[in-house]
């Protein structure tokens, strides 16, 4: 047997309450009644119904007061509310709609009208919930797919890296990858796509494929990024681009070449000596074929660390913080992370710079690598 829909009817007039309940029970609905706003709130909080019929004029808490409570509670916010009223003035109706009501039934009501309106709004509610669930499932699948191709330190232990990734939405706009190019040669890539729409999740898979194809020992890091940029210019939508940082480490030579494309500087933490920021100006990727990227080369030693990160770690649009003003904090955070393992270090830095996870305004990735 299919489950019956539950409808909560709230009216302080016992005659109206009984008539409404009888009308809807004949249609096969399960009816719960309340004769006050307070009782309606309690019943809905205890067992959320599928739809609520709510009288506006009730002693104590009015229907307007009650719907405010429903819409402020996640458990009841999505339940459709139909107001019952003898009031026909436009001002009251506008107020009700502005508070979240989906419809009005004017007293005295006709049973067939009540049944028709209840049926209509239950159908609309089912359709809306189905759409939400469908979109949530697609986004969940995209999120899982995106996570599946984000490499973990366990998959590439020779790269000696740790990473801390926090997405603002389910499918984030920040992306990283680590590539084993040759013996003792590794590539570390971080990018930040413009915008946070769902299409970004699909674009990251394209970038991963381009990295694998073009980041090889036969190309310099600058050549690799130019090749990738040429393809991105052709495939990205007009409003899309990405800032990126690509670091290629040659442990045998003790050299790290770093290409910057509109990206914040890396934080270099030598084993002996204070941390410092290393960066270079460069154009974002995917905007135009003649883009100019910045390049710098570090001489590194065993035990040194390099932190590569996206701007969400050090910027806050609402407080007008940009990474240029947060350099001292970044250096301090990376210095404090020295005792931590390379796997733990990115989280230590993140917790120092962004202790309040709830105030996060952008995706963030921080990747630490150890020479």
From TrEMBL:
Coiled coil: none annotated. SUPFAM superfamilies: CheY-like. Pfam families: Response_reg, SpoIIE. CDD domains: REC_PA4781-like. Residues 6-122 form the Response regulatory domain. PROSITE patterns: RESPONSE_REGULATORY. Keywords: Hydrolase, Phosphoprotein. The modification 4-aspartylphosphate is found at residue 55. GO terms for biological process: phosphorelay signal transduction system. One of its GO terms (molecular function) is phosphatase activity. SMART domains: PP2C_SIG, REC. InterPro entries: Bact_Sigma-Reg, CheY-like_superfamily, PPM-type-like_dom_sf, PPM-type_phosphatase-like_dom, Sig_transdc_resp-reg_receiver. This is Sigma-B regulation protein RsbU (Phosphoserine phosphatase). It comes from Desulfoluna spongiiphila.
